[in-house]
Amino acid sequence: MNPLLVNDRRHAAAAVVSAATPPESENRxxxxxxxxxxxxxxxxxxxxxxxxxxDFPGLQTAVAACLRRSANAxxxxxxxxxxxQIGQQERIEGLxxxxxxxxxxxxxxxxxxxxxxxxxxxxxxQRLQSDSDSRLQLVALPxxxxxxQCLLVLLETDSLDAGVSSAAWASLLMLSGLIxxxxxxxxxxxxxxxxxxxxxxxxxxSHVQSAPTSDTACQRLADSxxxxxxxxxVCVGLCPRGSKDVxxxxxxxxxxxxxxSEETRLIESVLQETQLRSAGGVWPVxxxxxxxxxxxxxxxxxxxxxxxxVSAPLQSETGAGTGSIILxxxxxxxxxxxxxAESFLRAGSESLGSCLEILQKLADSRWLQWTQSIRKLLTRxxxxxxxxxxxxxxxxxxxxxxxxxxxxxxxxxxxxRFVAAPFNGPLLKCLxxxxxxxxxxxxxxxxxGREIRWELAEVQANLHKATKxxxxxxxxxxxxxxxxxxxxxxxxxxxxELLTHRDSSLEVRSPADGVVVSGDHREAEGVPLETGQTxxxxxxxxxxxxxxxxxxxxxxxxxxxxxxxxxLDAVPEDSLEATIRNIHPRxxxxxxxxxxxxxADVVNASGMLRPGMRGHSKISTGRNLLGWNLFHKPFxxxxxxxGW
Length: 644
What we know:
The protein has 644 residues and is an alpha+beta fold. It folds into four domains: 9-188, GAF domain (Beta-Lactamase); 210-369, GAF domain (Beta-Lactamase, 2-Layer Sandwich), CATH 3.30.450; 418-536, CATH 2.40.50.100; 540-642, Beta Barrel (Elongation Factor Tu (Ef-tu), domain 3), CATH 2.40.30.170. It contains 13 helices and 26 strands. The strands form five sheets. Strands 1-4-5-6-2-3 form a six-stranded antiparallel β-sheet, sandwiched between helices. Strands 12-21-25-23-22-26 form a six-stranded antiparallel β-barrel. A five-stranded antiparallel β-sheet has the order 8-7-11-10-9, sandwiched between helices. The chain is elongated. The model is unreliable at 1-38 (pLDDT under 50).
């Protein structure tokens, strides 16, 4: 067999001899083919292989195999016209080799003869001629079952003048009839499947419509879909009325839904993604044109051991989103189940969505039914009992009760003494830490005096030198230089006195009795200190100040002189009583709350109180009616909200 016309430049300008119908010799061969005896086994085998094709790609594969075996075809091409579907362009699809390997000139010849065969509705025969080979003949068989489509077969004859053999024509005509028969069988199967789908959908909708509530309807829908579509898991989500967010409502089998679990959030993200897509989805993706916005589908599939996920949105007739459905498959036939589930959900999504929308609307009308039920329960005796109870509550609200303002409190020292570094120098040793009780003049820390003593020795040496120089100037009657030396001696004497004083002040002592509140320098020994740097804070323990935090909403009820009862967390069994002596005029932020701080003095007779202790305080503001105590704040908020 000569090389096929595939990407060969010598065929780019090939002359074409064509005919609208097969030549007379070929027509006679075709008529003889009708009477040609073909083995029944071969016919049955070909028919069985064609009719056993599950789908259109399988049909193309079976056709190519039959032509290769019976007609010894060199090239088999299926032609698709433009306009069959939205956006579909004219194209050819190679059944024995990829169409990308066919020369452009040959592609154009194939399209031309396919268009002529499709317009005439009769087989067309065309001989391909080139400089070296004219034994290639192209046969175009229109396929009535698929309008506009055509089967193109390139055959090689035995000689230059020979035509297509009768056996080849018989095989081609028989194949055309089998393709039409396959299409009829396929249409019958699809019609039967659609009838079964419609019957199942009608039964499902009636079963869902009979549910008393929307939640029960979702549960029935999930259980029915699981048994009908052989799914491992079915999840149904609904959009609350007035919201576009989808919430998981039911799981097949009545599984418990935890709204805070990670799995529930992942399922709801898939439901929400399906509703936003407004189209069904399948993961793993089967249709390349429908793979957008499937990230949540992929995450859920990976989380559930790479299961197959089929999703569909539930929309009403107006296009409003009602909810979404998710089905998962894990068995070996997951692909087949996913295809049937996708088609079933596509057919019933609008009916199911409208059904659930109606149930949600009926749920709103149930408030009226509940109101009527409550009215039936309110009999005369019950109304009298309710009146007595309300009267008793009204009398109780008139009882005068002390109104107490509660808040947090903290102990602070009455006075604070700060101990600072007397001069620059390194810290030699720290003897106390925060919380230590000290007495007046107790040693707190010691400064390192080596640098001071070294400088003092230098100053004393310079002082002796200046004294000698002055004596020399005096003996030489150099009175001006002697006066200058005298001033230098005075400067050095004052410097020596200062260094001597610092050398005697290396010990830092407590200025008063109390407790060390702050200043932990045990790990800072050897660190240089600066003059005036705060080393310790000492607070006396004989008395304390209670800082009471008054809520901003109750400050108008608290005045100076009111009693306050304090219960400290450190001493919960005892309580302290004091009198408010001062209220800060400016609010402060304490623990993230805006409060006013009131001060009250308390004596620390037992010595157990320490600065920084916290507790709870209760301020007695006077007697008011119990009803006022309970409801004056909500009433004030209501008046403010109404703008009165």
